[in-house]
Amino acid sequence: MAGDGGGTARSFAIILIVHLAVLALWQVLVDAFHVPKFILPSPLATVQTLGTASYAWSANTLVTAVEILGGFALGAVVGVALAVIFSWAPLLSLLLLPLFVTLNMIPKVALGPLFIVWFSYGIVPNILIAFSICFFPILLTTARGLREVEPDLLDLVKSLRGSRWTLFRKIQLPGSLPYVFSGMKVGAILAVAGAIVGEFIASERGLGYLMIQVQSALDTPAMVMAVVLLTLLGVALYGLVLCLERMFVVGGARL
């Protein structure tokens, strides 16, 4: 266990060093070539925009974080639940899964105006857009994991007269967890995109809304700062999924 912890610490240190090196190179190149701030601001100029009180960074970041986390959580719950239902009812899976595939092909940007008509402005439409983007990969990967059960294990449970619930709890669920978390990691990335799509279409708060506002003033450092904060939110959510994977999956994915 100690060796595993040391390897994790080394991996984290390498990742941190690489990111810091990229920031340092960015700063050096911008200063060396005297790149105008409105084209590409330096990291220092970008961070300085956090002192602009009129941008309400904390409030807008919190709104976007709620949209991302809400859409992701809803997508994970609905995706896993539907996958379990489909595994227990193959006929229902045959009827509905192709429909979900078709619905997933609809461009989510096109759904944005409809969500606004149906649910008005606010956080709820953006959560639903994030959900609509991130839930399908979770559904597909979980359904695949529940299907891929070794025949020998199935025969063993049947020979012991195990119930469907026993089969699910002892065999299917543990075996499908790597697939579940794989889908959740993809969903975490897509949830960020979904929330921003909603804020770009119509919103009164959030980092996407702020980017639209500062664009008209050519405040590029503020736009870059918004992108950085969005990235940090996505990394935080992805890291949370990784932590959960390490907790529940034996020999889970490593950083």
Which regions are unreliable across 5 or more consecutive residues at pLDDT < 50?
A: none
What is the average of the pLDDT values? 86
CATH class: Mainly Alpha
Q: Which structural category do the helix and sheet elements fall into?
A: mainly alpha
From the alpha carbons, calculate the radius of gyration and give it in angstroms: 22 Å
Shape: flat
Say which CATH homologous superfamily is assigned. MetI-like
Can you give a write-up of this model?
The chain is flat and about 75 Å long. The model has no long low-confidence stretch (mean pLDDT 86). It has one domain (52-248): MetI-like (MetI-like fold, Orthogonal Bundle). It has helices spanning 2-32, 43-48, 57-88, 90-104, 108-119, 123-147, 151-159, 164-201, 207-215, 220-248. 31% of the residues are buried. Helix 3 (57-88) packs parallel to helix 6. The longest helix has 38 residues, at 164-201. It has ten helices and no strands. By secondary structure, the protein is an all-alpha fold. Helix content is 81%, strand content 0%.
